[in-house]
Amino acid sequence: MLEIQHVSKSFGTKKAVDDFSFTVKPGSPYGLLGRNGAGKTTTIKMILGLVEPDEGTIRYNGEAFNRSKHSLGYMPEERGLYLNARIDEQLVYFAKLEGKRHVQAEIDMWLERFELVDYKQKKAQELSKGNKQKVQLIATLLHDPEIIILDEPFSGLDPVNADLFTTIIQEQVQQAKTVIFSSHQMQQVEALCEDIAILKAGQIQVQGNLSTIQASYEKRFLQLPFTPAITEYLDSHFRYEQISPKELQVELENSQMAITVLQDLQAAGIDIPSFRCQQPSLHDIFVRVAK
């Protein structure tokens, strides 16, 4: 278990991290969210040991976290491949940096998993952005780390590769790894993370179990088919927005109001082929908290 306890960090007069405390449990991915400059990168650098906190402690399994004693895999937002080096050679190099040798079998397994076998002896500069990202994730996981930190892992991925990344990350979670996400891709965070913290200007604004946070917001969204009859009725009675060519959404203060809207439509003799009442998404909460 990774514990961040009352950690603060300033650069000159700017307080980049102000009294952060959160716990990341093995097998329970943690989403570290916020706009640019919110304190995510500084927090990650302190966990990595690249920056010393001014105050507070970082503990792992009840002891002061010592980077040299525990294996850590870090996928930075700014990818760190050597463009003029062969893929297989730099994967061996990255593994050696983490104290792991004789990794050819593991490299071959990962390259096959990511459909990169044909690129094994190519230079990184010959790869597409998505394939470079795959190689970066392989480098992150190759030494079988206890702690995994992923900074914008889904940025720029097509849907197929995003699904592949999700599957592989879920497999790491099932092995009880300690996983931290820093991302602006709210859908992926919502699908993967149990606990989150939303940061703003160096302070934690919201944190805890994601499902509990979502349930605490009374606001609900009623989604209805985009039909002429429903649209005409809502034009006169409720504010709504069209969220797709076939669907519209009414923002409501609570779930009881959804029942009222449906009853009103029914009383007006309007056919309702289908409907969904949803609690706020992580995207909705993030925009509300971080803006």
Tell me the CATH architecture of the largest domain: 3-Layer(aba) Sandwich
The secondary-structure element order is: EEEHEEEHHHEHEHEEHEHEEHEH
Strand adjacency order, main sheet: 6-7-8-3-9-10
What radius of gyration results from the CA coordinates?
Answer: 23 Å
CATH superfamily of the largest domain: P-loop containing nucleotide triphosphate hydrolases
- The fraction of residues assigned to DSSP E strands is 25-35%
Total count of strands: 14
Briefly, what CATH class of the largest domain?
Alpha Beta
Number of domains: 2
From the 3D structure, determine the CATH topology of the largest domain. Answer: Rossmann fold
Quickly count the helices. Answer: 10
Largest sheet descriptor: 6 strands, mixed
Task: Give structural notes.
The protein has ten helices and 14 strands. By secondary structure, it is α/β, with parallel strands linked by helices. The chain folds into two domains: 213 residues, Rossmann fold, CATH 3.40.50.300; 64 residues, Alpha-Beta Plaits (2-Layer Sandwich), CATH 3.30.70. The strands form three sheets. Strands 6-7-8-3-9-10 form a six-stranded mixed beta sheet, sandwiched between helices. It has a four-stranded antiparallel beta sheet with strand order 2-1-4-5, covered by helices on one side. A hairpin with a 2-residue loop joins β9 and β10. The protein is globular and about 70 Å long. It starts with a strand and ends with a helix.
